[in-house]
Every structure is written in structure tokens, then in C-alpha cells.
Specification:
60s Ribosomal Protein L30, Chain: A, 5-stranded mixed β-sheet, homotrimer, alpha+beta, globular
């Protein structure tokens, strides 16, 4: 069991199924030694958590929890392409879009739901941007995307005997 | 004619002129084996398509069409730097910002205008994020940016005769 | 003194201290030959410049100045990880989020505050996206993130004498 897998288990979590994209694209994709994810919503077993805008129908605590779930979905999407959780060496970047009422300005606290989960599994730090947007797909409270480092595996070299 | 060029022709499309940036930057730029584009607006021959917010002055169908146009402009910008459409091996990432009324939540359908065009020219899948923003430059309904893979061409080696 | 350092001095500027992130992440991070920054706010000596929304409480001129400050903070964050300003070979990408009133559509002019500063220090062009978002952390008028090229330094080779 890799360290990342052990840390996930310590949190009482496991990787969810990767959600089918709501459009003509893929959940995650390898580019060289990185894997990028599509924007992930806080969906659990097909149900969207806490729809609405933070500062209005959604509290900061609910949005923090939703950001954590969306980040876990994004980790699962990255792992599905990287070759498993243990193939991810670190998380490079976390982008958090927060559907916000006009006067809600604590996007940082909401985004910590994503950053703290990611940091618990992959210590070492990542860059992050958090912004408050007007509205998100399906009325989601948050959307999270990741860029992770996942070095390409050396290919098995066929051995030929003389 | 490359496959991408053939597919573009099958769609009845050709690459538009690359629009001059509305600021102190460039439309696209190579970084290693990738080309990144600036955010592209749905402009045709200098005219912005369907200004306004989706869910308000702009319908989903109009915004879908606008996303398709903005994506084509982004492909043109990428191709101008990559060394032509045939120098692009795939599209890695599509980011779609949708200027949205407060209660419009079908950003995914709008963004499919970009993803489906990109996927028709470059099959194989890309990651995508779609978010609903308050307002876009020039009152555009959508803004699209791309990251594409475009392997650097090996340089011609000068041949010296003895 | 590198060219970038000389240009910064010509502008009458120096790199500010890198602000402590308002969350569980780092200000900037190296990934291969690039350095990415977190989203940076227009903070000077701990004080946020011009809080509010552009087109409402904040003028275009104030937002332009704020974008310039946020971009300088982002350059400082990138330099702190790259190994100094002189270790940055160019700026690849500038992302500018502008907190906008519903009818403000000149995000391009605001973002020029970032692009023109970056271009004055690192000529050669960068890609840029500018979008108008509902609201930003701490009620900031703008948030700026950068991707820069900063080639990894070759490691010093220990010399062993026979």
C-alpha cells in the first residue's frame, strides 16, 4: 500500500467511482508526466451535494464539505488515468470555483475544503486559485480541477535470450 | 492534407484569421511541446456573436453556436503558432467561461459547442471545465481557451559535403 | 544585474515580500521547467487595494492599478521559487479574474494592468485570459495568476581530485 493510499484510508475515505462527464470530454487525461482533470462537481452516488450559492442557500460549512467531495472526485479521476493513486507523486495545482452570492467573500475558506483534503493525501504543497463565480453547472456550489504529477512508467523491456 | 484538415473541411469549415488581441498579449504561444491560447471570443469577421448573458438575452442554442465559433478561433490561434493545423497532435484542455444569468445552470450544454467542434477535428478526448461567470469582455456570451499538444519539429540539419 | 532586474528598477519597482497564503497551499511551485503561482490579490504591505467590484465601487483606473500590483505580487511569488527574478526566462500565461458589476465589460483594460507590467519586465509576449467574476476572496477587485518558464539549473558537479 502506498503512502497516499494509506493516508486516504486513515481519513476513512476511499476513491469513488469516476463520474461520467456531462458532455463531450473525458474526466482526466495524461500529458507527459502530468495528469489534468476536468472540472469536478460535489457529486456522491449520483447526487449533487448542497446545490445553490454560497452565502445564500449554502453555508460556508456545507460548501467546505462540498469542496472536499469535489476534490476527492478529482483525485479519483486523476488516479484512474495515472495508473492508480500510488502513481500520483504530488498535486501541483488546485483550482476552485465557488458559486457565490454577490456579497460572499470567503472563497478561501471554502477552497480549504479541497486544499486540506489534497494536502492530507499528498503533503508537500500545491498552488491554488479560488474565485467566486456567478453560477456553476447543475447549480453546484463548487467545481474543482486538479493538475497532478504522475511520472510515466518505464515500459517493460522484453528480454530476449540468445 | 492531414486528417485534422480533412475533418475541418468535412465540417464545411476553414480556419479564420487570428483576431488581434484586445490588450498587451499574444493570441497563442508555444511552451515546449504544447501551445496555449489566450481566451478567445466568438467573433466572426470582427463582429461579436450574440452579446449578452445566457439565460437572459442569449439562448442556449445561440450560446452553443457562439462556443463553437470561439473554439474555432482558438484552434486557429493555436495552429498559427504550432505550424499549421496538421502540427497539432491533439487538444489537451478546453476551458469554457459562460456569461450566465443568476439562474442559468446548463453551462455544460453551452460548452459542448466547443467540445464537440474540437472533438470532431481532434478525436481522442480532452479535459474540460465549464463555469458560469458574471460578465465577459465586450459583453461576450462565452470565452474559450485551449491547451494543445504540438510536438516541436526537429530542426533541419544542414548537410555539408566534403 | 539581469535584464529583468534592470527593467524592474527602471520602472521604479522592487519585488515585494511574498504574502502568506490565506489557506492550505503555497504561493508558487516548480513543475519541471515551469513555475506556477497561486492566485494573487492586490495587497500592499498587508492592505488590500480598492476592495469592491469594478463598475460599481471600483473604477477602471483603480482596477488597472490593482491588477498591476497583483501581477507584481505574482512575479515575486514566482521569483521566490524560481531562484530569483533572473531565473525566470519568460512569462507564459497570465490569468486575470476581475470582480465585476453585472454591466461592466472592459475586463480587457483592467487586465492590461497585469499584462503591461509583465510585458515591461519580460518582453516577448504571453497568453492571457480575462474574465469578469461575481466576487473574489476578501472582496478583492482582481486576482492574478502566472505560469512562467524558469529552466532548472544544472546541479553543481562535485569535483574530485585524484
Amino acid at each position: 500500500m502506498s503512502q497516499a493510499t494509506a493516508r486516504l484510508a486513515e481519513l476513512g475515505l476511499s476513491l469513488p467511482e469516476v463520474a461520467t462527464p456531462v458532455g463531450a470530454y473525458v474526466p482526466a487525461l495524461r500529458s507527459g508526466n502530468q495528469v489534468l482533470t476536468s472540472g469536478q462537481l460535489p457529486v456522491v452516488d449520483g447526487t449533487l451535494l448542497h446545490p445553490g450559492k454560497v452565502g445564500d442557500q449554502v453555508t460556508v460549512e456545507q460548501a467546505y464539505a462540498a469542496a472536499r467531495v469535489a476534490a476527492l472526485n478529482a483525485v479519483a479521476a486523476a488516479a484512474s488515468v495515472a495508473g492508480g493513486l500510488e502513481a500520483i507523486s504530488r498535486v501541483v495545482r488546485v483550482m476552485v470555483f465557488v458559486a457565490s452570492s454577490a456579497d460572499f467573500t470567503d472563497q478561501a475558506q471554502v477552497a480549504n475544503g479541497a486544499s486540506e483534503l489534497v494536502g492530507a493525501i499528498f503533503p508537500g504543497g500545491h498552488v491554488r486559485s479560488a474565485v467566486g463565480v456567478a453560477v456553476l453547472p447543475k447549480n453546484a456550489p463548487v467545481e474543482v480541477e486538479l493538475v497532478v504529477d504522475a511520472p510515466e512508467q518505464p515500459r517493460a523491456v522484453p528480454v530476449t535470450r540468445a
